[in-house]
Amino acid sequence: MDWRGDVPFSVSPFNEVDALILCQFAYVKFERVASDSFTNTIAVADAYKNFKIGAVPENDRAVTFAQDNILFCKMAESRRFGNMLISGSCNMFSQDENMQFAAITCMLDDGSVFIAFRGTDGTMVGWKEDFMMSYVQEIPSQRQAVSYLNENFKGIKCPIRIGGHSKGGNLAVYASMFIDKEIQDKLTEVYSFDGPGFRDEIVDSESYKAVQGKIHSFVPEGTVVSMLLNSDIQHKYVRNSVSGLMQHVSFNWMVERDRFDYLPQSEQKTGRINKTLSGLISDLDDKEREGFVNALFKALENSDASTIYELKDLKKYPAFIKAFSKLEPDEQSVMKDVLKKAIKNGKNSLFFDK
Fold first, then answer.
1. Integer CA distances (angstroms), 27 to 32, 118, 136, 172, 175, in order
2. Are strands 215-220 and 160-165 parallel, antiparallel or unpaired?
């Protein structure tokens, strides 16, 4: 935004870095300043004027909350995005359905529409829904992503791009497969930024093959998230300014003008964590995965932690251990078996990495 924010789309057409900016923009808590209506639009610059950072509850703040607000400010001040109209703000959360879903529609100056799906927030519900991808064919937010497009974009005449970061990337790819044909025909590009993959039956389906050529997948050099489950997409590997799990945070991705700084083929590698996780998933059947996820989150929720970030507090660990000890014997057994397999896979991948 500092480097290219003054360049309008009429001079430099929409590019992959623009797509990531809009997908990260979806994490902003602008539900109070952008309408859920598609006829009541507001410019980014005006939305930022009405935005009150202090009004966002602590539990609603993603790990990138501070950076997202800076991004919002820079977009509002820029020539490239300041006049961009936004609408269709949607933020849905249901503990009963294990659903966390959010989306925003952006109308760009080049006459196209970009729908950005938010990735996982810090809530336990959001994280549990991610885990559910491993054992159910359709999670609630995937179903909602399809509905968001089908209910609001019938008869649209302009080109459509959709995308998301993390779970948002998975939602974008999933929605592209199952939206109505007339909307799918207007879909020009689908962007997934380090989004998790899909179960084999999805990847092998004709619906997936029909849109595969429109999908652009970008992952950090040490990706973990995008390697979860299957994906038959050719990824582009992006250099990162950090190491470890924080590579997933898109503010650490490196850019060159209007594109990403890519890693050469010879330097692309899969880390030990990836091998451990992928090996663990392949070792478990759907029933084992479901049993583990339910037991894990039952213990987490009984420890009185409502967000993932609270687990950083060491005071929560005794409560978690106590909650684990109160699980039913069969639930404890499932968790122990899965953790044993994880340790075994970790040792094996360590050997092969050496």
1. 13, 6, 25, 15, 19
2. unpaired
Strand 99-107 to 85-94 pairing? antiparallel
Question: Measured between alpha carbons, how far is 29 from 164 in angstroms, rounded to an integer?
Answer: 15
- Return d(Cα 212, Cα 206) in angstroms, integer: 10
Q: Among 33, 99, 212, 259, which Cα is nearest to 25's? A: 33
For residues 34 and 50, what is the distance between their CA atoms, to the nearest angstrom? 9
SS3 state at 46:
helix
Tokens 């699980």 sit on residue: 327
What is the average per-residue pLDDT within 93-119?
93
Say if residues 246 and 64 touch (Cβ distance below 8 Å). no
According to DSSP, the residues that pair with 237 across neighbouring strands are: 219
Q: What is the pLDDT of residues 261-307, one digit of tens each?
A: 998 865 655 544 455 555 555 667 778 777 777 777 777 767 666 66
| Single pTM value for the model | 0.84
Three-class DSSP category at 45: helix
Alpha carbon distances (Å) from 342 to 198, 281, 319, 333, 336: 21, 9, 23, 14, 10
pLDDT computed for residue 2 by the predictor: 93
**Site of tokens 């060159």:** 256
Report d(CA 205, CA 211) in Å as an integer: 11
Cα 340 to Cα 133, 183, 207, 318, distances in angstroms: 22, 46, 37, 22
74 is written with which tokens?
Answer: 């820079």
DSSP sequence for 272-305 = HHHHHHHHHHHHS-HHHHHHHHHHHHHHHHHTT-
Measured in Å, how far apart are the chain's first and last C-alpha atoms?
41
